[in-house]
Amino acid sequence: MRVTVIGGGLAGIESAYYLANRGIEVILYEMRPYVSTEIHKTGYLAELVCSNSLKSNVPYDASWLLKEEMRLLNSIVVETASVYSIPGGKSLVVDRELFSMGITERLLTNKNVYVIREECKDIPDDRPLIIATGPLTSEMFSNSLREKLGEDFLYFYDATSPVVTRESIDENECFWASRYNYGGADYLNCPVDEDTYNSFYDALVSAETVPLQDFEKDIFYEACLPVEEIAKRGRDALRFGPFKPKGLIDPRTGKMPYAVLQLRREDSEGRLLSLVGCQTRLRWKEQERVFRIIPALRNAEFVRFGVMHRNTFINSPTLLSPSLSLKLEPGIFFAGQITGVEGYLESAATGIVAGINAYRLLIEKELVVFPDETAIGSLIRYITTHSSEDFQPMGINYGIMPELKHPSRKERRRIIAEMAIDSLRRFLNEL
User: Fold this and answer.
1) What share of the chain is helix, strand, coil (3-state, %, to 5)?
2) Which residues, in sequence order, are bridge partners of residue 115?
3) What number is the average pLDDT over the span 228-234?
4) What is the CATH number of domain 163-306?
5) What does the alpha-carbon distance between residue 139 and residue 388 come to, in Å, rounded to a whole number?
6) Looking at the predicted structure, is the pLDDT value of residue 217 above 80?
7) Is the backbone peptide bond immediately before 242 cis, with ω within 30 degrees of 0?
8) Measured in Å, how far apart are the chain's first and last C-alpha atoms?
9) Which of 6, 13, 189, 322 is buried most deeply by CB count within 10 Å?
10) At the fourth CATH level, which superfamily is domain 2-156+310-430?
C-alpha cells in the first residue's frame, strides 16, 4: 500500500511520518533544493522560514494545548522541537538548523519513506494523495490546482524579521531578561527613551518599502503584520504591541523603559538574534538605517534581512470536508498552511489528521473527524465551516473553541484544556 505526499514542510513530514510508522510506503515529493522559493534557504525538510518559535509553553495557553494534543498523536515536529529546544522564556524555541536537520535525517533513514527531489508540476493520479505544498506553492503546481479546483486561490502576505549577530550588539545598551522574570533571562532587551522612540517611529513610517506588483493587493495576516504597518496605526501602536515595555525593568535604572525591542536567540549558541515582532517589507538598506537608530543596534550586523512573501491558501470552507478530504474527490487530502491554518504547529497538526484519514481510506475504514472540543478539531472546524466570503487564515486560540462560562479566565482555560485532552484520549482509544 502506498500514499503520495506532495510537500516536505511541517505538514507533509507529519503525514509521511504517521503513515510510514504504520508500514505504509510513502512517496514524498520535495522540490528543494533544486527548485527553491524566494524565502527558503536550504534543502532540508521542515525548514522554518519565519520565526524559530513554536509559541507558548505556558500550561493551558492555546498553543500549549495544541502541543499536548500533538504529543498524544506522536508528532515528529513536537518531539524533535523538544530535542533541539533553546532558551526562549515562555515559548518553545528551537535551533532552526538542527531542528530541520534532525527531521530530515529521521525521514531519510525511514525504510518506508522515499523522498523524490523534484518539482511536482501536475496533480498525480495516485490515490490517496496528500497535498501539503504550503504557502509558497510553485506557480506550475498552483496552475494545476486551479484547473482542478475550478477557482482561484485566496492569498495574504506574511513577513519575516531581520536577524543580527550577537557580537555586533552593544550589550551595554541592553539587558537579558524575560517578561515578568518568567523562566530564564532568555531575551536581550533593547530599551529606548521617548526621544529615541520618536526618531525610530518617524524613520520607520517614512522608510521605503518593497513595492507590490500591480495585480497584487495589500492583504496582511493580522497576527503577523509588518512592523511598519503596525506603526502606521498610531505613534504609540508599537509601544502597545511588539515594543511594549510591560513586565520589564531595566536593571541600570530600576525602572520600566519607555519602549523595548526584544531580541531572541536563533541558534543554540545564541550567536544569532532575531528582532522579535519586527517582520518587515522595508528595503534592505532601509532596514539597516531604521533599526540602527535603536542604541543597542547602532553597529548591528544583519545576517538576514526581513523579507515579504505571498502566502497562498485555498478556500477551504467551500472545498474541504472536516476530514480534510477534497469534497469533489475524497481521495485527495489537503494539509498545512495551504488549507488556511496559520502557524507551524497548526500546519503540522493538519498533516497528522490528513495522514490518519489517508491511512483509513487505504484500509477501507470510514474517515474520521476530530472532536470539536479539541484544539485540533476546533481549528479544522473553523477552516472548513467558516464563511467562505471573508475566510482568512487562523491560528489556534480559545476564541474558536467551544465556549465555557466561568468567572475566572485562567480557570476557564484550564477546564477547556483538560476537557480537550480527555476528549482526544477517548477519540484515539475508539480509533
Assistant:
1) 35, 20, 45
2) 28
3) 96
4) 2.40.30
5) 23
6) no
7) no
8) 20
9) 13
10) FAD/NAD(P)-binding domain (3.50.50.60)
